[in-house]
Model the fold of this input.
Amino acid sequence: MSTGKQVLLINPEATPAMPGLADALRAAGAEVREMRLDDCEALLDALAQGFMPVVLKAPAA
Done:
């Protein structure tokens, strides 16, 4: 992963959809923020700072 990559993981559920993903992205050199959808102001701030939004969905059982 190229340096300087900023990823915003958005989890709409109460429990993490993909545990370990944030750590794996950080290990690959990304700056990662994790948020829930209910924090709209922080979400908009992160987008304004250039973070790439990724909405997480739990894998199908």
The mean pLDDT is 88. The chain has two helices and three strands.
